[in-house]
Amino acid sequence: MQTSVLSYLEDMVTKLPNKVAFFDLENQITFLQLRNRAVDLAFEIQKKVIDRRNPILIYLPKTVDSIVAFMGVLYSGNFYTPTDIRFPAEKVKSIIETLNPTAIIVNSKTKEKLQQIEEKELDNLINIDTVEISNRYGESKELISKILDVDPVYTFFTSGSTGTPKGVIINNHNIIDYIDWAVDTFHIDESTVMGNQSPFYFDISTQDIYATLKTGATLGIIPVTYFAFPIKALQFIKERNINFLYWVPSAFVSIANYDLLKSIVLDKVELIMFGGEVMPVKQLNYWKKYLPNLKTIANVYGPTEATVNCTYYIVDREFKDSEMLPLGKACENTGLLVLDDNNMLITDAQPNKLGELCIYGSSLSAGYWNDEEKTNEKYIDNPCCRHYKEKIYLTGDLVYYNERKELVFAGRKDFQIKHSGYRIELGEIENAAMGKEEIINVCAAYHQKQKQIVLFYQGNIAEDEVRNYLLSVIPKYMVPTIYYNLKAFPYNDNGKIDRKKLTEEYL
User: Fold this and answer.
1) The pLDDT value given to residue 91
2) Tens digits of residue pLDDT in 394-435
């Protein structure tokens, strides 16, 4: 019985000790080297942190050293919270204040930066550059033996769609449950070379890291800066023989919009998957056209509270540019409920009936760090389970079943508006607009004071032409009256369109 994700690493140390597990632009590390460095760090942590199950902040660049830090924290019996050295000072301060970490792992450079942010001498810092060699690697399994499957692995602070930071607690059995399914479903094995795009504080990276540890695959950490110059990201993928890409849609969209796959052929890539926001079919069709050996395309969905994903759809048919990919069906060992406004169950025998998607199962998070009020608000008793207590998570996402009994995303509850007496899903407007060939990116919003629908878009097309096109494909009451043609969209830390910034700047 596996009770710790560290069992994955221990297995690979036995099976594939000298195989490269992770690499970045400058460094690489084998499974054995990773285990040994992590154990050294664990004993260093235990000098400062006596108890177990404590939060430890990671303040490092996104490199191989971050992976060492994560594993070292786990071997020490504690859990980690990744942050980003590019975060504004106020955001870092806010996380530290909420988390109250017992220790912070830094390197020589980030140590100085963090002390400037805090404006005081910090006595709980552990410098990963100066960790002493312990030679106690034979004790690694003893360290693991003390870990329970309910012990936390990490806390991710995510703003979601609301802009309010929440610390989501994910434990060992959450990850083991999810990773076992992901590895089996997407056939990840020791021949797989994944290309990491997402930040380590975003849940997509959970699959990247722990699928690598479970299977003996290899994970290439693509430099963050390369996604600002995506031709470099493609060169990195080609040169390092990466064959598996799990990214947020905006990263795929950017490369498609620049038409970069014509000049760099990614003939090793066999699987692409995307999640975190809606993937436009127009840009997906572009990727399909230029990947000669593509075997699998997966659209996955899930909030951080569900560990990584709770639904998946393996693309099995052609879609027009104006169509939307379905969310598909539940991941294994995951329960899904679609509830109407009266908490009544909507089934797949009721096509096109809108409801809120709710989740339960072993991959469901325990709740939010130091926020009982928010936890009780979002994790409620299952109204369909009348004979014992069972928690479900309210995603805030609106979905419906299509005629194929597939779940389809309709938008956020907080993106649903009432306009001219009609209930309107802003996502439906966005999807319609993406059907116009010249439009490469969109975001719909609602101007509350003026009671007008607003469309932000990117593309070489006049506002009148956009409006006339929308009049031909959606009802008149849904057609926006205000248009902003942007040169570029703002994105948040997770690579999603920053709706909050758009509305603050323009509305």
Assistant:
1) 86
2) 999 999 999 999 999 998 888 788 888 888 888 889 989 998
Task: Residue 76: name the closest of 98, 110, 103 by CA.
Answer: 103
Q: Which of residues 359, 393, 411 is at a domain's end?
A: 411
Neighbouring C-alpha atoms within 13 Å toward the C-beta of 384: 15
Beta-strand relationship, 439-447 and 452-459: antiparallel
* pLDDT bucket at 18, cuts 50 / 70 / 90: very high
Shared domain check, 444 and 391: no
Last residue of a domain, which of 411, 443, 460? 411
Counting Cβ atoms within 10 Å, is residue 172 exposed (0-12), middle (13-18) or buried (19+)? buried
Q: Please check whether residues 425 and 461 belong to one and the same domain.
A: yes
Contact yes or no for 106/127 (Cβ under 8 A): yes
373 & 347 share domain: yes
Residue 233 contacts residue 226 (beta carbons within 8 Å): yes
Structure tokens of 461? 């097309």
- Whether the CB-CB separation of 172 and 75 falls below 8 Å is answered with no
Average pLDDT value for the chain: 94
Say if CB 353 and CB 400 are below 8 A apart. yes
The pLDDT of residue 163 is above 80: no
User: How many C-alpha atoms does 222 have within 13 Å on its Cβ side?
Assistant: 32
pTM of the predicted structure, to 2 decimals: 0.91
Half-sphere exposure (Cβ direction) of 498: Cα atoms closer than 13 Å: 13
Q: How far apart are the first and last CA of the chain?
A: 54
Residue 376: which CATH number? Answer: 2.30.38.10
Say if CB 113 and CB 97 are below 8 A apart.
Answer: no
* CB atoms near residue 142 (< 10 Å): 9
**What is the rounded CA–CA span in Å between residue 241 and residue 218?**
11
Compute the distance between CA of residue 155 and CA of residue 429 in angstroms, rounded to an integer: 35
Instruction: pLDDT band for 476, please (50, 70, 90 cuts).
Output: very high
Query: Could you give the CA distance from residue 432 to residue 443 in angstroms, rounded to a whole number?
Result: 11
Q: Which domain holds residue 502?
A: 420-506
Residues 6+ apart with CB under 8 A from 321: 280, 281, 282, 285, 434, 435, 437
Q: Which two structure tokens, joined as six digits, stand for 319?
A: 């879609």
For 381-405, what is the mean pLDDT?
Answer: 95
Which of 61, 65, 55 has the alpha carbon at shortest distance from 34?
65
Shared domain check, 381 and 346? yes
Q: Do 31 and 140 contact (CB within 8 A), yes or no?
A: no
Q: Find out whether 138 and 36 touch, Cβ atoms under 8 Å.
A: no
How many degrees, rounded to 5, is the angle at CA 57 between CA 52 and CA 62?
Answer: 130
Number of domains in the chain: 2
Which of 450, 449, 402, 452 minimizes the C-alpha distance to 426?
Answer: 452
